[in-house]
Amino acid sequence: MGSGLDIAIVLAAGEGTRMKSSTSKVLHTIAGRSIVGHVLAALAPLSPKDLRVVVGAQRESVEAHIKEIASHATTVFQAERNGTGHAVQLALDGVKVGGNVLILAGDTPLLTSFTLQEFLDAHIASKNDVSVLTAQLPDPTGYGRIIRDEFGGIIRIVEERDASEDEREIDEINTGVYLFNAEALTSSIHKISKNNSQGELYLTDVIALIKNESNKAGAIFSNDYTETLGINDRSQLAECAAIMRDRINDGLMRSGVAIIDPTTTWIDISVKIEADATIHPGSGLYGKTTVAKSAVIGPRTTLTDVSVGCCATVLESHCTAATIGDNANVGPFSFIRPGTVLAAGAKVGAYVEVKNSTIGEGSKVPHLSYVGDATIGSGSNIGAATIFVNYDGVDKHRTVVGDEVRIGSDTMLVAPVTIGDGAYTAAGSVITEDVPAGSIAVARSKQRNILGWVLRKRAKTASAEAARKAGATE
Ligand code: UD1
Ligand code: CA
What we know:
Blueprint: E1 7-12, E2 29-30, E3 33-34, H1 35-43, E4 50-55, H2 59-69, E5 74-77, H3 84-92, E6 100-105, H4 113-126, E7 130-136, E8 145-148, E9 154-158, H5 165-168, E10 172-181, H6 182-188, H7 205-214, E11 217-221, H8 234-254, E12 258-259, E13 266-267, E14 272-273, E15 278-279, E16 284-286, E17 290-291, E18 296-297, E19 302-304, E20 307-308, E21 313-314, E22 318-320, E23 322-324, E24 329-330, E25 335-336, E26 340-342, E27 347-350, E28 353-355, E29 358-359, E30 364-367, E31 370-372, E32 374-376, E33 381-382, E34 387-389, E35 399-401, E36 406-407, E37 412-414, E38 417-419, E39 424-425, E40 430-431, E41 440-441, H9 453-457, H10 462-469
Parallel strand pairs: 1-4, 1-6, 4-5, 7-11, 12-15, 13-16, 14-17, 15-18, 16-19, 17-20, 18-21, 19-22, 20-23, 21-24, 22-25, 23-26, 24-27, 25-28, 26-29, 27-30, 28-31, 29-32, 32-35, 33-36, 34-37, 35-38, 36-39, 37-40, 39-41
Antiparallel strand pairs: 2-3, 6-10, 7-10, 8-9
Bound molecules: uridine-diphosphate-N-acetylglucosamine and calcium ion (CA).
Uridine-diphosphate-N-acetylglucosamine (UD1) binds next to strand 1, helix 3 and strand 10.
């Protein structure tokens, strides 16, 4: 028997019928990682020399995903789902096996490397031919039950459907994680039969076979049953996602991140957050998002693939594929779209949408604006309700705004157009031509006041009366 892990087999051929989904069960995600991805991630530190994943239902998409996340894994195709025993027969077919074989299901995403390593160590120490990882469940319905003898040794595993009423009372269950001595497994795996209520080849029957043959079968109890929860439907998916969310948040809080309401804060496993950052309630941080120290995120903020600098604040906003610099301020109610880069100290305020634009150091877009395909220099101010008119109906064009520019409120910057350093635009202007540095562009019609118009055309109205009181005459 080897001292490490020689072969790991992940069973993932099932249909996942109860998910009622067009996506394979094991490709559904928790914390930004597929269910089978979590299983493979937990396995990775055990460094199995040979990693095999049995695929069947939705073969193409599952195989492609496995190739992407674990290129060293071999996928084995199980064309017909004849049971877990059949899946293992196929996985071992033509493989030169020796040492330890770990078998687990692809639908138990909460298993940790720590537990798997402990299980492996215990199995090796026991010198058994097979060890089964077991757990005690508050509700064991649906799981295989562990039948032990009067000395506490495992005799066999009985599936719920094949169990007697007494056996169903047992709350110690088979987690579906096993370690085998390779020779013992290969010599017994072809001896199992379909003699059960489902007419399938049960991997669990191998345990009784080994027990009878060599008496070297053991059950190893896992204290944290939540690790062994399997996902069969969407409500179990949500249950496992909540447990994973708590784990991730606990880890972050222990590392110094302030999470005000962990139950409403959803952070992908891939996200990195530095100590002293604060995450307010109702926020979701996804993908490759990173948050530097002392930044404040939320409440109710969504960040996907966003990098947030030190001491920046992002309040009630939705941001994707963007960089938010040190000390920058975003929100409330900002929409930051892909390709946005906010330099240090930049500000994007209420009801502002920014797309594919760079906003320079200390520049501000405080209110009610659309900034698309723009490059804005440093120290500039974009007045309220300014629109960067980037789309001519066919193509997108860029706008360049220099340093220390003052764009008047309600300006239309019709791209392509360039506003030179230190230039101004008058409020309400529609700017279609470049504005040279240091000049002011006024692009609106001159104001006319038609005196007494209200008194003549809107006589007897409240407005006319107010005007008369103020001394206006016809
Ligand atoms: C299985 C165990 C049960 C255990 C439970 C733990 C058997 C007979 N029963 O039951 O004792 O308590 O897991 O979760 O093993 N699969 C294949 N090919 C097949 C059938 C299944 O690859 O032909 C895969 C599935 O995709 C799944 C795993 O094996 O990932 C377990 O199969 P599933 O049908 O979910 O078994 P359970 O009824 O949950
Ligand atoms: Ca299952």
